[in-house]
Design brief:
The chain has seven helices and ten strands. The model has no long low-confidence stretch (mean pLDDT about 95). A hairpin with a 4-residue loop joins strand 2 and strand 3. It is about 30% helix and about 15% strand. It has about 250 residues and is α/β, with parallel strands linked by helices. It has a single domain, classed as Ureohydrolase domain (Arginase, Chain A, 3-Layer(aba) Sandwich).
């Protein structure tokens, strides 16, 4: 740790509209999970690369411009971002789109996250992909794995059994956003809004191995306060290891 060009950038943002508080503490639990797993992946047959840890100051609450400004000051070539809630994806993409004007997003989530407002707010974990569509264009935002939405939420939405169709819509360069509630809550319960059903770890790995290399990615909505956190911390740490290997691939 701390010697690589890849950055793990932690954005412990927790919106005022979060139903159960706790996502801001995700990183300290993931770090404990990293201590429990091997640095070598039997799935990709590669070692986890060295990486640098950077913590973004989120004391200013929902000040997304402050987060975006800090990210611009940090600078990064390759990064995995750790939430916090899903709203962090918006300021990240505000920075990335300047470097990649044609950027696509592959959004893996149990929810569409495309409400126009939520609890009276335009910017929320429940509206983030609507705001991202406004930023990038709706044709470049692809959601995979949804199993909950409301009628107003349209867009490029695919269930997990439509995985092939979703991948066919994807173009590079792209950004990968993973909401941990896409996983089956019976195997990953530590999320604020669990939805019955969902995917297993092996299904996620099959997707990751099929995908082209991404320019950056995030892991969001791990809430260690809502269920027994230790197995879930190891689960997220393993996801992080696999994504670091993927983003480091030549």
């Amino acid at each position: 740790m701390g010697r690589g060009k890849i950055k793990v950038i932690v954005i412990p943002h927790q919106g005022e509209d979060n139903l159960h508080k706790g996502v801001a503490t995700a990183w300290q639990h993931i770090k404990l999970g990293l201590e429990s797993i091997e640095d070598y992946s039997v799935y990709q047959e590669r070692w986890m690369p060295d990486w640098d840890e950077v913590i973004v100051d989120c004391k200013s609450g929902d000040d997304l411009e402050s987060i975006a400004t800090q990210l611009m000051e940090i600078g990064f070539d390759s990064a995995i971002f750790i939430g916090g809630d899903h709203l962090i994806t918006y300021p990240i993409l505000k920075c990335l789109v300047q470097r990649y004007p044609g950027l696509y997003v592959l959004h893996i989530d149990a929810h569409a996250d495309r409400r126009d407002t939520y609890c009276g707010r335009k910017f929320s974990y429940a509206t983030v992909m609507r705001r991202v569509e406004e930023l990038l264009g709706g044709e470049r935002v692809i959601t995979l794995g949804y199993r909950s939405l409301v009628p107003e939420e349209g867009g490029k939405l695919f269930r997990w059994d439509e995985l092939t169709e979703a991948i066919e819509e994807l173009r590079t360069p792209y950004y990968l956003s993973i909401d941990m509630d896409v996983f089956d809550p019976s195997v990953f319960p530590c999320v604020t809004h669990p939805e019955p059903g969902g995917i297993r770890f092996d299904e996620f790995m099959k997707l990751l191995m099929r995908l082209p290399k991404f320019v950056a990615a995030d892991i969001v909505e791990f809430n260690p306060h809502v269920a027994t956190w230790w197995p879930s911390s190891v689960f997220v740490a393993t996801i992080l290891r696999e994504m670091l290997i993927k983003v480091a691939a030549e």
